[in-house]
Request: fold
Amino acid sequence: MSMKKEKPQGRILVQLFPSLANLASRGLAGWAILIGAAIVAVMAVMTVVAPWISPYNPIAINVGPILSPPSAEFPLGTNHLGQDMLSRVYSGGAIMFQVAVLSVIVCLVVGVPIGLFASYLGGYTDKVASLVMDSIYAFPGLVLAIAIAAMLGPGVVNMALSIAVVYVPSYFRIIRSQVLTIKELPYVEAASMMGAKSRTTLFRYILPNVIPSIVAVATINFADAVLTSAGLTFVGLGLPVSTPDWGWDLTYGRRLLPSGAWWVIAFPGLMVVLLALGFTMMGEGLSELFNPRLQK
Amino acid sequence: MSLRSYVIARILLTIPMIMLLLTFVFLVVRVLPGDPASLHFEKQVSPEMLLDFKRRLGLDKPLIVQYFEYLAGLLRGDFGKSMQDFSPVSQQIFSAFPATLELAIFSSIIMVLVGVVLGVQASRSYNSVRDHSIRVFGITSYAIPVFFLGEVLIMIFAIYFHLFPAGDRIYPGMAPTGLTIGGLHWSSGLYVLDSILEGNPTKLGVSLRYLFLPSLTLGTVLCGIFIRLTRGNMLETLQLDFVTAARARGLKERTVVYGYALRNAFLPILTMMGLQFAALLAGAVLTETTFSWPGLGRYLVDRISFRDYTAIQGVVVFFGILVAMVSLAVDIIYAYLDPRIRF
Reply:
């Protein structure tokens, strides 16, 4: 029993890193993860350094003519307030990153323990938790997020919370399906027979094996959070005008379409697509590596 | 388990799900910080006015009384009163619903058609450039905000080429009247069906033209999962003996693929359509707003700008019940078609 005293972190690394090593030699899934991660990394860096690389203040109005098409001075044009679209594109991702990161954190903190305990304990706890989670899961996510965000009012934290409520069930379901299989495996049985406490079994022996799936869900959750936050902004539950935000540009740029000002929505829109695509590619690749039986 | 006991068990499971959902929405509206009545007014109003406002909406009663009144109301098909004019929300819901249903039906057709055809094409040219481009398209479709795609399509097809209208459902005053027999009128609210019933090909054409861009937008955004599902399924099925046997009999490749192999994918596709219904409604909210489509989603977004919390609650509850009913129906159809799942 005391022959091997490993730190729990050791186990996690053992599980996760060999599967992530040599990504380039792991076929399409590996490449999808690498390209997705590269896209996300580039956009994250761009957002962080935006204040230094932006030619103009992204929220200053009338820095140029109104609705100027892309030109040498304004490479991505200007909008109806005379704001420089290039500067807005550089810094417009900050809100989405914040909302997405916060909502993933909330989901992890809430969804992972509920999933672990409910499925490990089984019985009524599991039945009740599953019923609650399935009810939320079945609901049109955006509609529920809209209802919650409408009541909470605008703000990064409130947006993140309303998105988190919608995505907690995804974590719960994947964790539950994994734990139900893992807890029947001989090594877990051996651990309990040798007298390991439930807590030890759950966190040291079961959790490390669930982590890869959690990582895969979390990446997909990032992509969805980006799209949902854009959607919430689109229905009028976003942040005030004073914050540069791709979602805001997409929402208000719509009214400028009849005037032919395609550049006001095209560039922010492409940025949202790229960011969501980066996360989706990572998520799809990770799920394919970690749950090969789920997809062919 | 017989089909009958399966259906009964499935219905019994749906009831607590709907109850949980109704309770959850009730709590979201009532218990989250700030009461809905005070939130409704942007500026301070006198306490007497607020109290009167609450009384007219029944928001002055104790929470538990409100809860049971809300449940009893739903049983009668009463989705509450609007904060704006105290009119019943159910009236608005039922008049806007056909527009959403029509959009949902046509989007599903595009979603499944595009998904299945591309999925089959990808599986037939496994690991080729065509296969990879189709898969990339599938993954990209997950990542496009539905309203951005809608805006791009409006820009191209409505503003530059003037091929399709940019929004709304039909010209003003042109709504089809539906079926008329003697002095009796009946219309479904689905303009395509009503135009056919009225026997008016012009209106049918116009309705379809208005439907095209919104359905294409929503269908494209949701087709990715069907590409993956069909492709995976076909890759397996095309290896099976019965396909080889069909080919050996000299049947045309087209017949083998679409007539034989694709049938195997029918059940998973049906199940996925049921699962995607919630995503379809969520997407419809944004699509309707983009195309000024006068359905439930646009009604919901309208109500948000008026801070009409009771109406928001009504629409959200309606969506919830609708999704629960559809998933119940899909499960029952599935159990009927595939007896294995009942055991």
DSSP finds 15 helices and two strands in chain B. The two ends of chain B are 6 Å apart (CA to CA).
